[in-house]
Amino acid sequence: MATSLSPSFGMSTCFDVYEKLKADLAALEAAGEGEDEQSQKRQDYAAFNFIVTARHLAHDWLPKNGGRPKQSLKKLKRKHAGLTAALNAAKDIANGSKHFKITLYTPITLSMSEVFSTMRLGLSVPSTA
Fold it and tell me: What's 81's DSSP letter?
């Protein structure tokens, strides 16, 4: 199994990043739906963490791990037709949030609710056993 060759906050495999993604989803769900400014910030920060983690898990970690993780991503894309669109939207949201403005390509626009509901379907990685 490939491991990270860079400083990584204790995450060195795609499985570690997947565990972070699950924690990010739990934090997003726990952020609530309040309308006040503090609730909105919690929701925004939780959404940012989830989207950025999902994007990098799918784009950087899974494809660079040979074997089962890489194959699982391919199977998920075949099984869940909307997953590719959701991952493309995650790319746009992550890049737009991190880099202020997307200039290297034309982003695809999806609603945030569509992104989250579609991505939730894909939160399945085979066990490491």
Answer: T
Contact 56, 66 (CB under 8 A): no
Query: What number of other Cβ atoms are within 10 A of residue 31's Cβ?
Result: 18
Residue 23: count other Cβ atoms within 10 Å of its Cβ.
Answer: 13
pTM of the model: 0.68
Q: Which segments of 66-122 are extended strands (E)?
A: none
- pLDDT per position as a tens digit, 38-69: 888 999 899 889 988 988 888 888 887 766 76
CB 70 within 8 Å of CB 62: yes
DSSP sequence for 23-41: HHHHHHHHT----SHHHHH
Helix (H, G, I), strand (E, B) or coil at 16: helix
Cβ proximity of 19 and 83 under 8 Å: no
Provide long-range contacts, Cβ within 8 A and 24+ apart, for 18-25: 18/57, 18/125, 20/53, 21/50, 21/53, 21/54, 21/57, 21/123, 22/123, 24/49, 24/50, 24/53, 24/54, 25/50, 25/120, 25/123
Position 23 pLDDT exceeds 90: yes
